[in-house]
């Protein structure tokens, strides 16, 4: 609805402003992709792919999906358009709708909107920190608070041995775990750490920690990320059981969590995904990114109620009589082309009702133009805040007259 869209516009405007400050360029990617793209990137045994994707067969029998997230599509476009030859590092963002067939609740929708940001071509720890600092700054500048939780998910060298250790740990407690965890212990063991059941979480308090099983390179990378966050003064906490719901992450993973939205507290999340571009048939290019949910940001802003209401009109043209109406109509067009926000009544309402309309549309000024005024070559300009009224001479040169009115009201 228009009221809510106002909030969205504030968020998107601020996001674009900040993304551009950090050197990102906008990319627009399609809503429909081959289903296989998401299966190969997000992971076959993730909730998104197993239960939540909107997939269908098109008229040629090809399996398509409505994108559940933006990263896979951005990488597909990056590879197909050979963006890797343009420069060594690409900074891209995209804003748009995503689709997941989840159980709808407060802050969780089946069509929702993300601002999704990706850096392709840098494996440096400073890049991870820069991306998190940008997400942090965006929240700060729109006036929201969240906790930044970070973790390292290791790499192809250290994760398999951790996974094996975790699997062993789970096996010993299998009968005490929920059905989902029992299933995941085979298909996707890391995901069990993210289980929402308190009972399962009790079992995992003594689970091995991934942070303690990182290889030397991953460990140094994580230390550098933390050090750089400290340097910038971005507050964070390390959460070793945060594993993310998408399989493509390596090393740094992070979430921005608020306690003000009930169960759906993640307002943004992301991480590093080295190896994903190669896996999709591109060159061996590392990547990192995050996405923020616009609805969740808008809900938080709405709860805070701190936003200025949208601006009203600069001017409302009140006309009385046929000749004045036509003259006013022409004047309105000229004022609009000069950048003035102006409206008038087309329904032949009385002067009183037109003034009411001017108030309703929060017009700063009203210009009263009647057939008599036209004859006397003088119109009344009313300041709607002070109630003061002055008479403005109606110049023969219509263009100049519009410009003079603009100067008076702006
Ligand atoms: P994600 O954690 O699945 O990550 O989603 C990111 C954000 O999208 C969430 O933190 C939340 O704010 C919002 N979101 C997700 N699902 C819903 C929903 N059903 N309703 C409302 N909001 C939702 C990704 O999508 C990754 N592609 C992020 C990324 C980019 N990682 C690297 N680059």
Description:
With 410 residues, this protein is of the alpha+beta class. 41% of the residues lie in helices and 22% in strands. The chain contains 15 helices and 16 strands. The protein has helices at residues 2-21, 35-42, 47-52, 71-80, 125-141, 159-173, 179-187, 198-204, 216-232, 276-279, 294-304, 322-337, 351-360, 371-376, 398-409, and strands at residues 25-26, 32-34, 54-57, 63-66, 90-99, 111-120, 147-152, 237-238, 250-257, 266-272, 287-293, 315-320, 342-344, 365-370, 378-383, 389-393. The strands form three sheets. It has an eight-stranded mixed sheet. Helix 1 packs across helix 11 (294-304). The two termini are 29 Å apart. The structure holds histidyl-adenosine monophosphate. Histidyl-adenosine monophosphate (HAM) binds next to strand 6, strand 10, strand 11 and helix 11. Histidyl-adenosine monophosphate binds at residues 69-71, 100, 102, 108-109, 112, 114, 116, 118, 245-246, 266-271, 289-293, 295-296.
